[in-house]
Amino acid sequence: MNRADYNEAGSNASNRARRTAPPRPAFTGLAGRVGSAPAPPRKGTPVMSTVRIVIVGDEVLNGDVQDQNIHFLARRLHALGTRVRSVAVIPDEDQVIVDTLQAGLSGGDRLLVTGGIGPTHDDRTRPSVARALELPLESHVEAEDRLRRSYGARLTPAELLMAHLPRGARL
């Protein structure tokens, strides 16, 4: 029996399993291989939508911070029946953020943007998202309320700016 006959005959269970079960794809992006895809959604769970994940942060790209979001988000979204189509890790640069978001939106997918948002002078994510959507930034009442509850009396004006979101944003 030659190798082709052996594989065709499927003379052991592991060969049969390999032939019938397609390999589970790995999630990859600019950050490289992240891990195996989670188990498929439960039978009967419809795939409702697709999403592209965009992670903003020079600190991720230069290795100062290890991303903790891709694996968590991909598993959670998959369990909810949402297919992750791509992951991009991009720098804190206005035009790169705008271009990436506009390209993602033109494909008809939802975008989930994480990272790059904080009470620092170099926060470029919120203004760039607003620019990509062609919407103004404005104070978001619910976001401001959450910040006030979380920070209490320690809330600074710089931290309060995190509640300035593109018009119509939902938390």
Question: Please, could you describe this protein's structure?
Answer:
The protein is built from eight helices and seven strands, in the order ααβββααβαβαβααβ. Helices cover 39% and strands 19% of the residues. By secondary structure, the protein is an alpha/beta fold. The N terminus is likely disordered. The radius of gyration is 21 Å and the shape is globular. The relative contact order is 0.13. The strands form three sheets. Strands 4-3-5 form a three-stranded parallel sheet, with helices on both faces.
The largest sheet has its strands arranged as: 4-3-5
Structure classification? alpha/beta
**End-to-end C-alpha gap:** 63 Å
Low-confidence stretches: 1-38
Average pLDDT figure: 78
Strand content: 15-25%
The helix/strand order is HHEEEHHEHEHEHHE
Q: List the total number of helices.
A: 8
The total count of strands amounts to: 7
Residues in helix, %:
25-40%
Describe the largest sheet: 3 strands, parallel
Q: Please state the CA-atom Rg, rounded to the nearest Å.
A: 21 Å
Keywords:
171 residues; alpha/beta; three-stranded parallel sheet; two-stranded antiparallel ribbon; 8 helices; 39% helix; 19% strand; globular
